[in-house]
Write a structure and sequence with these properties.
The chain is an alpha+beta fold. It has 14 helices and 8 strands. The protein folds into 2 domains: about 210 residues, Orthogonal Bundle (Endonuclease III, domain 1); about 120 residues, Nucleoside Triphosphate Pyrophosphohydrolase (Alpha-Beta Complex), CATH 3.90.79.10. A hairpin with a 3-residue loop joins β6 and β7. The chain binds iron/sulfur cluster.
Length: about 350
């Protein structure tokens, strides 16, 4: 292995001389705000996550403010970011810190990683940035950088691969500047050693980087499994009059838990015929379909959601009995958080 000092000093030199990536949470000394930024940025591009971070910081400046907020408000502020379990866990953990830990954020990796919704990556980021603890962050960016520089072709999504990358990252982290090192490797992976067309011509590691020397940047890192996506078919029933509409809250342990939607019939495959019958059975009475929306598709990491919205002819809202349904004034719709497809449908149909 190329020596540790070479790696960390090259990285820290690059950080001090060439890294100009600005983030509002960089240099932040409040663990709550670093935690908030890390949770918002998981699976999210910085440009998309930044306005959310600023809105959360403004509305909930401390963990106690977040702990006191009603869940619906938190979900509404999160709306559009996806991966809603992150918002629920954030809220849950804020309440836990406020009530069980007297509002004081834990100060060690060991204690931080026990909090719900905080995995090893976020715990290492908080522990190193705020408390100067030597815990290496390992995520897709870090794995890509290490796999390329060290020419590691062990699949990173296997138990063996995960262990090997974690051990190597922990060996390489700077003894004296662990927080700066972690921030630097994240920034380096996000701005120089990027997935497609890495900027090898300006890279300080190029003369020793195995991927560059052997022209294998495209091949590394190696993934063992291909993700197969499950397809789901959602049929939403639009039950409304001039003043009110029926909505339901998703409460099962499934995608979009805690968000609102229209009454929905899920089918294991696309319903091509007799959709009127299926909707009548769902509503428990015979209905006549007036029209359908265009199909809406939403890609999630492991699922593809196909949605169609169905308008019912002359519906009388008084006679609708759907479990968990609530009738709300149309003008109140903006106060609820909806999944992206439902939100888009409501906007396109001038309901939001
Ligand atoms: S030389 Fe290219 S592939 Fe190697 S670390 Fe630098 S940017 Fe990444």
């Amino acid at each position: 292995m190329k020596d540790k000092t070479w790696f960390s000093s090259t990285l820290l030199d690059w950080n001090r001389q060439s890294n100009d990536r600005q983030m509002p949470w960089k240099g932040e000394k409040d663990p709550y705000l670093v935690w908030l930024s890390e949770i918002i940025l998981q699976q999210t591009r910085v440009e998309q996550g930044l306005p959310y971070f600023l809105r959360f910081k403004e509305k909930y400046p401390t963990v106690k403010h977040l702990a006191k907020a009603p869940e619906d408000d938190v979900m509404r502020l999160w709306q559009g970011l996806g991966y809603y379990s992150r918002a629920r866990n954030l809220h849950h953990t804020a309440k836990h810190i406020a009530s069980e830990l007297k509002g004081i954020f834990p100060a060690t990796y060991h204690d931080i990683v026990k909090l719900k919704g905080i995995g090893p990556y976020t715990a290492a980021a908080i522990a190193s940035f705020i408390f100067g603890e030597k815990q290496a962050v390992v995520d897709g960016n870090v794995i890509r950088v290490l796999a390329r520089i060290y020419g590691i072709d062990l699949p990173f999504d296997t138990t063996e691969g995960k262990k090997a990358f974690s051990e190597l990252a922990q060996k390489l982290i700077s003894d004296t500047h662990p927080g700066e090192y972690n921030q630097a490797i994240m920034d380096f992976g996000a701005t120089v050693c990027v997935p497609a067309n890495p900027k090898c011509d300006i890279c300080p590691f190029a003369d020793k980087c195995v991927a560059y020397q052997e022209n294998r940047q495209e091949e590394l890192p190696v993934r063992a499994k291909r993700i197969t996506k499950k397809e789901r078919f959602f049929y939403y029933v639009v039950l409304k009059d001039n003043k009110e509409i029926i909505i339901t809250k998703r409460s099962a342990n499934d995608i979009w838990k805690g968000l609102y939607e229209l009454p929905m019939l899920e089918s294991p495959k696309a319903i091509r015929k007799n959709i009127g019958e299926a909707v009548s059975t769902f509503l428990g009475k015979k209905v006549k379909i007036e029209s359908y929306s265009k199909p809406y598709t939403q890609q999630l990491t492991h699922q593809t959601i196909q949605s169609v919205f169905i308008f019912i002819d002359g519906e009388d809202l008084q006679n609708v009995h759907i479990e968990g349904a609530q009738k709300v004034p149309l003008k109140k719709l903006p106060t609820f958080a909806f999944p992206k497809v439902v939100h888009l449908f409501l906007v396109e149909n001038s309901l939001l």
